[in-house]
Amino acid sequence: MAEEQNRSRKRRTLGILAGYGFMLLLLAADQWTKHLAATHLTNMTGDRWALSSVRLTVPFIPHVLSFRYVQNDGVAFSLFSGNVSVILIANIILLALLLFGHFRLEAVGAKKRLPLEIVLLAVCAGAVGNILDRLRLGYVIDFLQFEFIDFPVFNVADIYVTCGVACLFFLVLFYYKKDDDLAQLFGLKKKGPENAAA
How many CB atoms lie within 10 A of CB 133? Predict the structure, then answer.
């Protein structure tokens, strides 16, 4: 019995480390792309790219996607611009709730938790990426722009959050069909005999 508990504890620890390693990789990708945008999407002086007030729009996929540097003091996709302190506090609260949800998943150890865990960690990575920008710079660096529609400039962290939320809705509607699936995942309902070994 004790040996089985030790194995279960080790699996849980490895799961936590793998999960946060995944989140750190996503966060690193977000910060790296923002660094590239801040460094290169500016006016060209001589043979070198230099920071200036003149921002370049660089086509990536013609008529579909381009790169354009924007300093965003709003939330995702430049919404609610100007309310930096309120947005930062709201982001930190959201991050705390997401991390709490992830810890609840790890504590339960349910077999069906992996898809939801990946989604939560992706959204966390997006939230942390933009929070770091606000704490460090006072604004968020956006640099991706759709050319074929009138859409706000966005960044990789916004993609994490948007895709994560979309996947969350899909999981709730189609993957966790039973009413008690999510309750069991978050430890709000005890597992039945058939799930006791999960």
Answer: 21
Q: Is the pLDDT of residue 81 over 70?
A: no
Q: Cα separation of 74 and 142, whole Å?
A: 11
Q: Is 142 a catalytic residue?
A: yes
- DSSP letter string over 154-189? B-HHHHHHHHHHHHHHHIIIIIS-STTHHHHHTTSS
Which pLDDT tens digit goes with each residue over 21-62?
Answer: 999 999 999 999 999 998 888 654 433 344 444 567 888 999
For residue 90, what are the contacts with CB-CB under 8 A and spacing of at least 6? 75
Look up the pTM and report it: 0.74
Is 181 a known active-site residue?
Answer: no
pLDDT band per the 50, 70, 90 thresholds, residue 197: very low
Residue 113 vs residues 7, 73, 117, 163, 187: alpha-carbon distances, Å? 18, 35, 6, 18, 11
User: Which of the residues 133, 158, 179, 180 is marked catalytic?
Assistant: 158
3-class SS of residue 67: strand
From the candidates 73, 142, 179, 181, which is the catalytic residue?
142
